[in-house]
Amino acid sequence: MIRMGIGCTVLLFLSGHAVINSPAPLPVAFANSSPMELAFQPAMPTVSVKQLPPEARQTITLIQRGGPFPYRKDGTIFGNREKRLPIAPGRYYREYTVPTPGSRDRGARRIVTGQQQEYYYTQNHYRSFSKVKL
User: Fold this and answer.
1) Which tens digits make up the pLDDT trace of 14-47?
2) Which of these is catalytic: 17, 55, 95, 118?
């Protein structure tokens, strides 16, 4: 009888310990991430929309209006293959060109948007991003 009581006490303690110490659910963008991907997710700088170049602010205005966009690739899926943005389902992000004065092509600057209305800016063709605070 005492043995059974101790066993039940240990079982209750362990089950309570598991519930108390279980991690909170991950945000949707991280739900399918491996522990290694989460461990190496770098902190992302933020930038106010007012601090962006005027061309980036104009691109954000076009995005919010739904276009029209000057480049054929604007609004296409951004795959996040570099994994520099939060991990999300494959069609979560879209990219838009930020014109670069003097550039003969699309240049390196982009705004990338997520399905939850988040905005990211890169000035170096996806090598690094800043989260845009609208």
Assistant:
1) 444 443 443 434 444 445 555 544 445 568 999 9
2) 95
CATH code: domain 26-133 is 3.10.450.30
Q: Where are the domains of the chain?
A: 26-133
CA–CA dist 109, 64 (Å, integer): 18
More confident site: 80 or 32: 80
Catalytic residue among 17, 37, 82, 125: 125
Query: 95 catalytic, yes or no?
Result: yes
53 or 89, higher pLDDT: 53
125 is catalytic: yes
128: exposed, middle or buried (Cβ count in 10 Å: 0-12, 13-18, 19+): middle
Provide the strand spans (E) within the chain.
46-48, 76-78, 93-97, 110-114, 119-122, 130-133
